[in-house]
UniProtKB/TrEMBL annotation:
Catalytic activity field: L-lysyl-[histone] + S-adenosyl-L-methionine = N(6)-methyl-L-lysyl-[histone] + S-adenosyl-L-homocysteine + H(+)
Listed GO biological process terms: methylation; negative regulation of gene expression, epigenetic; telomere maintenance
Protein name: Histone-lysine N-methyltransferase SET5
Gene Ontology terms, MF aspect: histone H4K20 methyltransferase activity
One CC-aspect GO term: chromatin
Main location: nucleus
Cellular localization per UniProt: Chromosome
Residues covered by region (Disordered): 419-445
UniProt key word Plastid: no
Keywords recorded for this protein, A-Z: Chromosome, Methyltransferase, S-adenosyl-L-methionine, Transferase
SET domain span: 110-382
Pfam families according to UniProt: SET
Native source organism of the sequence: Lachancea dasiensis
Length: 486
């Protein structure tokens, strides 16, 4: 009987064809840092992974990346995400200071007292024993309402409040009846209160026909566009605050005085401490993310700012002031607004106070635990659910200091201990080391044992072998010769 031989494909080689075509890419430093930071944000426990396990996790999230353990370690060390000597890290907290102490209304802050903790820095202390959940103070309104940049387009179309940005749900009849619309443009306000607060600046910034030596409406609109283009809230906020200072005869001087009492630092120093701006990362657009290559953006924005406010430079508002104000806004803003009293609270990763937004514009501060008279009040600048590495990095980049609070010390110490223990345990059999069990690499099966039992199993293909194809499973060669009967 003649036998015809035919070659057949087995296994899953065929269905993977599309997958195979996906080319490997060498990620940039920024992509690597952002990937690691994102993992730490989403899974705080992943901060404890050693470099090998970290690489496995990063590759499983970014399968197309071509990245070796050495490269990963080098990039992370180069960007201060992995370091052995803390003292070499760049900090700028010593440069953060206020021009003069704040002058809080004694009626509002009767439970706290202000003390200078070092030259140019003030902080609040409990003026009496405070019980847990007790209200400490209430700030009715921020320094001056700042329109969120992402509401600017809706506001100019009359779909959100021109001052506070709140989306408008009111009927046009209600708007007209209450005179909440602008006679000269499409702006609308959510309340009489917002319209009144916006009265000093709205026309000068939004009506090209308005006459003022201090403001050019067309220049302002270009500045607004530029801020939108770069997605930068901070310079936009600075522009709004500056406009209120120079145009609002009633409140301008007060706004300026309060603003000067806030801690200030040049955005350039903050940019120097940041080397990874990231997707969902810690130094995002609202907190002033501009990576070092984007330095010229500030020149462009300042030039545009000067077109909007033609006399700014003459009045002493130069590039340095601009950058200091951008830095000031970024370190003091809370949800985009500046609450002057809240701004003077210092940080601890285990705070003794907490805040709640109250009504449309207010902020209330509560004791988070019992506080003794004379104790300093601490809020938290970062998400307390994050792991210690991420918290400290965020504080370092955004606020310029390495946190050495008791919680950080405790967590760093226990990590150090776990690490030492892990090293001691790792030697004879990696499979039994409990810390490594979670990793795919560590749970790699004993092949000879499995082959003996005739089981099918998934085999991990090392990523750095530059294989032309990846296989989900391996049984035998995927091309076999079969004999077909004629
Ligand atoms: Zn409003
Ligand atoms: Zn108008
Ligand atoms: Zn801390």
């Amino acid at each position: 009987m003649p036998v015809k031989l035919e070659q057949l494909h087995l296994n899953d080689a065929e269905e993977e064809t599309n997958d195979l075509k996906e080319p490997k890419i060498v990620p940039s430093d920024k992509q690597i840092c952002d990937g690691v930071v994102l993992l730490w944000r989403q899974e705080p426990a992943s901060e404890d992974l050693g470099p090998a396990d970290l690489l496995t996790r990063i590759i499983s999230r970014n399968p197309q990346w071509e990245l070796s353990r050495e490269d990963l370690e080098q990039v992370l060390s180069g960007h201060n995400l992995l370091f052995t000597d803390e003292s070499k890290l760049f900090t700028y907290a010593d440069e953060v200071m206020s021009r003069h102490p704040p002058k809080p209304n004694p009626k509002v802050v009767d439970k706290m007292e202000l003390r200078e903790i070092r030259s140019g820095r003030w902080s609040f202390f409990a003026a009496k024993d405070l019980r847990r959940d007790e209200i400490i103070f209430y700030e009715h309104e921020p320094l001056t309402p700042i329109l969120p940049l992402d509401k600017a387009s809706l506001a100019s179309k009359g779909r959100s409040c021109s001052l506070c940005g709140q989306l408008l749900t009111q009927s046009s009849q209600f708007t007209l009846k209450n005179l909440l619309d602008c006679q000269a443009c499409s702006a609308v306000w959510c309340s009489k209160h917002c319209k009144r607060l916006d009265a000093s600046t709205h026309g000068f910034l939004k009506h090209p026909t308005s006459k003022s030596k201090l403001v050019s409406a067309s220049g302002w609109m270009r500045f607004e566009e530029l801020c939108k283009e770069h997605g930068l809230q901070a310079p936009y906020a600075i522009g709004i605050v500056y406009a209120r200072i120079i145009l609002n005869r009633q409140d301008g001087a007060h706004i300026q005085e309060e603003l000067e009492s806030l801690a200030e630092v040049s955005q350039l120093l903050r940019t120097k401490a940041a080397d990874s701006t990231n997707v969902g990362g810690l130094f995002d657009k609202t907190t002033g993310a501009v990576n070092s290559e984007e330095g010229p953006v500030w020149n462009e924005l300042f030039k545009s700012f000067c077109t909007a406010f033609p006399q700014a430079q003459e009045q002493g508002f130069d590039m340095d002031t601009f950058l200091k104000n951008v830095g000031k806004y970024n370190i003091n803003q809370l949800d985009g607004q500046i609450f002057t009293m809240y701004s003077h609270l210092n940080h601890k990763c285990e705070p003794n106070v907490r805040y709640e937004f109250e009504g449309k514009t207010g902020l209330r501060l509560f004791a988070r635990k019992d506080i003794k008279k004379g104790e300093e009040l601490f809020t938290t600048y970062v998400n307390p659910l994050h792991g210690v590495t991420l918290r400290r990095r965020e504080l370092l980049v955004n606020y310029g200091f390495l946190c050495r609070c008791s919680r950080c010390q405790k967590e760093l110490k226990s990590r150090q201990e776990a690490h030492t223990k892990q090293l001691a345990q790792e030697e004879p059999d990696q499979l039994t080391a409990p810390r490594r069990k979670s990793s795919i690499k560590a749970s790699r099966p004993d092949l000879s044992e499995l082959l003996k039992n005739g089981q099918e199993f998934d085999l991990e293909i090392p990523e750095n072998l530059r294989l032309e194809r990846r296989r989900k499973s391996v049984r035998f060669d995927d091309r076999v010769m079969v004999a077909l009967e004629e």
